[in-house]
Amino acid sequence: MVLKEIFLTLRPRQWVKNVVIFAALIFSQNLLYFPLILRASVAFVIFCLLSGAVYIFNDLMDLEQDRLHPVKRNRPIASGRITPQTASLSLLVLVAVAVGAAYRLGTPFLIAALSYLALFIFYTLKLKHVVILDLLAIAAGFVIRAVAGAVVISVDISHWLLLCTILLALFLGLAKRRHELILLADQASEHRKILAEYSPQLLDQMISVVTSSTVVTYALYTMSSETTEKFGTDNLVFTVPFVLYGIFRYLYLVHQKQEGGSPERLLFSDKYLLINVVAWVITVWLIIY
C-alpha cells in the first residue's frame, strides 16, 4: 500500500512531459537505430525518476498550501497517506539511483540531469515565487530535457527545435496558470502566492504572444535551409496545419471548457487533440524517414 502511494506521489501521468527527450532521436533520423533508442529510453527513465523526486520535494515544501487546494489536498503527502519522513527517504533513494545511472551515460548527460534537478530545487525554493521567472523556469526544464536527449546520443540539436520547445512549454504553462486562477478564484493567492501577481487579462495577452511566436517559429523551422538540407526535403512544412489545429484546439479547451490545468490529462482525454498529435507524428515519420 505504501509503495503504491509513493508511486502516485511521483505523478506518473506527468511523465509524458519527458518524451521531449526523444525529440533529438527522432529529428536526427536515428529512430531505427536500436543502440541509440536504448540510450534515449534509459535517459527517459532517469528523467522520470528525477521529475518524481522533484514532485516529492515540491509536495513536502508546499504541504500546507496543498491542503487548501480542492484537488491537490488529495495527494498522498497532503492527505497524510504518506508521512513526510517516508517521502523524504523516497526522494533520497530516487535521486541516488537517477544520478548514479546518469553518470553511466556520460558526463554531458550527467550535467544535464544535475542541471534539471538544481533548476527545480531552486524553482521550488525561490523561482516559483517570482513573477514571469516562474514560467520561464518551467519552460527551461523542457529545454534541458531536449538537450539531455541530444547529448545522450551524441547529436546536435537544432536551435529552431529548442525555440519551439521553450515556446510550447510557455504556452502550456500560461494556460495552466490561467486555469488555476479561474478555478481557485478569490482563494488563488492563498494556495499559490504568485497567482496574486497575475490576472486572466494579463495571462490572455501573454498566451496570445506565445501562441503567435510558437506557430511562426515552427513554420520557419520547417522551411529553413538548415532543415531542408538536413532532411533533403521541404515537405515538413505540411506538418504546420497539425500544429495550428493543436494550438487552436487547446485554446478552445482552455477558454470554452475551462480546461488547461493538466496538459497531460487533456492530451489523453480529448480525442481530437490526441488524434491530431498522432497524425502529426505519423506525418513527420513519413516525411523524415
Summarize the structure in words.
The protein is an all-alpha fold. 73% of the residues lie in helices and 0% in strands. The chain is built from 15 helices and no strands. It has helices at residues 2-9, 23-27, 34-61, 63-66, 76-79, 84-104, 107-125, 133-151, 159-184, 188-191, 200-223, 225-231, 240-256, 263-269, 271-288. The chain is globular, with a radius of gyration of 19 Å.
Short description:
By secondary structure, the protein is mainly α.
Element pattern in H and E: HHHHHHHHHHHHHHH
How far is the first residue's CA from the last residue's CA? 45 Å
Estimated radius of gyration: 19 Å
The proportion of strand residues reads under 5%
Topology:
Layout: H1 2-9, H2 23-27, H3 34-61, H4 63-66, H5 76-79, H6 84-104, H7 107-125, H8 133-151, H9 159-184, H10 188-191, H11 200-223, H12 225-231, H13 240-256, H14 263-269, H15 271-288
Helix pairs in contact: 3-6, 3-7, 6-7, 7-8, 8-9, 9-11, 11-13, 13-15, 14-15
